[in-house]
Design a protein that fits this description.
The protein is of the alpha+beta class and 609 residues long. It contains 20 helices and 20 strands. A hairpin with a 7-residue loop joins β14 (274-277) and β15. The longest helix is centred in the C-terminal third of the chain and has 20 residues, at 436-455.
């Protein structure tokens, strides 16, 4: 069945009548991952999201499937070990989305530097051990100062010692969410966006048994019945728990704001993702990443207490980031007016430094003695003096200290937590986008255990390490070749090579469905054939309900194609208006909403436009 507004109406009717095994609140990456695993395992699954899928945190990341080398500076070995291993799993189940793109980390001789060349080499060696890439072509290596400047001549040479290069992956965060959501829908899940939960419901025994929710498209309020309620709302986790009048909520979230800015590559060109200290001795590091003819950089990391649905980029954010970039690249002189696009998101950090992760482990600081032991055994392994299992033994027996992680947001662990309140409400919080599948796995395992124990309903959990997301039916070891073959099919049907490759990269194995639309869809005046097909596919198969859904989250027109965006806005809105049969008033409202989103994206207020 197609995943369109027609399907939405049918699924809402089903939610009114049926009792779900699990109701998932929150359509970001963790909720999407949980919905996929629950639906594929046979659970009657529903998911509701108050905005568009991924509209909150999960479309506003640094857009990396990031191994987390930086977390080794806080010696979060558990987090890094899980992350680098999980990254390869994500690449396997969503092979058309993450792309290997090695990261360069320049090292400067300056106070409070995160790494020296020596400690970076040790950290990268440990990182490779955890990732299982030691001795492969993906293993880390170092560059001299001259070699760094040959790659990135605009980098500040003063105090530059050299750099390390290690494995990392580029990601399309919003696409990863929608592909999980689509697979869950294909497996029978009810996936509903723009449905806002207003109350947690309970049965006669006081157990969480569903939710009251408002359909933000129609204004209708419905009651959804479920045996288990799962809260996967990220920064909103405490808000959902506070709707539950059967529990005494102790807030655990400490959201922080992250800002990214985009400029044309002509203003700042880098050959590969680059990652360095801010130079401000503030314990922060900043990314500079090339993408689709643009370069973006960030991020800030400041506590946030405002409207979580609408965080904004402030002048202080821009000043902070540009000061860092112009300091590290002194010849580029980037100004606010050079910024083409921007985005701001909230990280769902957990305030406690001792929060449990999805496996029930605990994230703690590590003693100096254990740090020395790790450095020593890695050095010995590199020299061939010890075996791999001896490295593993040292890592397994790391001792934790009792020191707090500090009050700075930058020092908070990116570990996650899985908690069950007294009334059975399951909350999954914290973590990183790279860990989404494993976080979801822990929550769905718990749900299946409860269903069997308390409801006498038995399910067998799928192996989600081998269950591809929608569009992921590709050989993960042969992605480039299979993608090129898919693109050739598009060329045979009349697309240009660039158009066909764009669509094949975007949709993976689903691109054949996109191509099939050519038999029934006429090219829209003002749009390329590829954009015409992409738009119709988004409407029919990806629950695209507004222009922003398509231009910002189903594609990257807003963020990375801003210079050509204005010319396609009118034909996109006209096509959507015809598809949905919008009234003139509705069309005007959607146009205004997009204009407001673009004004924020373009930083018009800060620019004085």
């Amino acid at each position: 069945m197609v995943f369109s507004i027609k399907r939405r109406k049918q699924d809402i009717e089903a939610l009114k009548e049926e009792t779900l095994d699990v109701l998932i609140i929150g359509g970001g990456i963790t909720g999407a991952g949980a919905a996929l695993q629950a639906s594929a395992s046979g659970l009657k699954t529903g998911l509701v999201e108050m905005q568009d899928f991924a509209e909150g945190t999960s479309s506003r990341s640094t857009k990396l499937i990031h191994g987390g080398l930086r977390y080794l500076k806080n010696f979060d070995v558990e987090v890094v070990a899980d992350t680098v291993q999980e990254r390869s799993v994500v690449q396997g189940v969503a092979p058309h989305i993450p792309t290997a793109h090695p990261m360069m980390l320049p090292v400067y001789d300056e106070p409070n530097a995160t790494f020296s060349m020596f400690s970076l080499k040790i950290a990268m060696g440990l990182y490779d051990q955890l990732a299982g890439v030691t001795g492969t072509e993906q293993a880390n290596y170092t560059l001299t100062k001259d070699e760094v400047l040959e790659r990135e001549p605009h980098l500040n040479s003063e105090g530059l010692l050299g750099a390390g290069v290690y494995l990392d992956y580029r990601n399309d965060d919003a696409r990863l969410v929608i592909e999980n959501i689509k697979r869950a829908a294909e497996d029978g899940g009810y996936m509903i966006s723009r449905m806002k939960v207003t109350k947690i419901l309970h049965d006669d025994d006081g157990r969480a048994s569903g939710a009251e929710a408002e359909d933000l498209l129609t204004g209708e309020t419905i009651q959804i019945k479920a045996r288990i309620v799962m809260n996967t709302t990220g920064p909103w986790s405490d808000t959902i728990r506070q709707m539950d009048d059967k529990i005494d909520v102790k807030p655990q979230m400490r959201p922080t704001k992250g800002v990214h800015l985009v400029v044309d590559e002509s203003k700042l060109s880098v050959p590969q993702p680059t990652y360095f200290d801010t130079g401000k001795q503030d314990g922060r590091m900043v990314f500079v990443i090339p993408r689709e003819g643009k370069t973006y950089f960030g991020t800030t990391d400041t506590d946030y207490n405002g409207d979580m649905a609408k965080p904004t980029v402030e002048q202080a954010d821009v000043d902070y980031i540009l000061d860092i970039i112009n300091g590290r690249y002194p010849s580029v002189n980037i100004t606010l007016n050079d910024v083409e696009s921007s985005w701001v998101g909230l990280r769902p950090l957990i305030a406690s430094s001792g929060s449990a992760d999805y496996n029930g482990l605990t994230s703690k600081q590590i003693t100096e003695e254990s740090i020395d032991a790790v450095i020593s055994v890695v050095e010995q392994y590199q020299q061939g003096k010890v075996e791999r299992f001896e490295v593993a033994d040292v890592l397994k027996n790391i001792e934790s200290g009792t020191s707090d992680s500090g009050s700075s947001p930058s020092n908070l662990s990116r570990g996650s937590s899985l908690e069950i309140d007294e009334d059975g409400l399951i909350t999954v919080a914290g973590g990183k986008i790279t860990d989404y599948r494993k976080m979801a796995l822990g929550a769905v395992k718990k749900a299946i255990d409860i269903l069997e124990k308390d409801f006498n309903r038995s399910y067998t959990l799928i192996d989600s390490t081998a269950y591809p997301v929608s569009g992921g039916d590709l050989d993960p070891y042969n992605v480039d070749e299979e993608t090129k073959a898919l693109a050739k099919e598009g060329v045979k049907k009349g697309l240009t090579e660039d158009e066909a490759m764009y669509l094949a990269d975007l949709y993976g194995s689903n691109v054949r469905k996109v191509y099939s639309l050519m038999d029934n869809v006429e090219q829209v005046e003002g749009l390329t054939l590829a954009d015409t097909l992409s738009l119709h596919y988004a409407l029919l198969e990806e629950m695209t309900l507004t222009p922003s859904d398509f231009l910002l989250r189903r594609t990257s027109h807003v963020l990375f194609m801003r210079d050509t965006l204005d010319s396609i806005i009118e034909p996109v809105i006209l096509t959507m208006a015809n598809y949905f049969n919008w009234s003139e008033e509705e069309r005007t409202r959607h146009t205004k909403d997009l204009e407001e989103a673009l004004a924020e994206n373009d930083l018009k207020t800060l620019k004085g436009d």
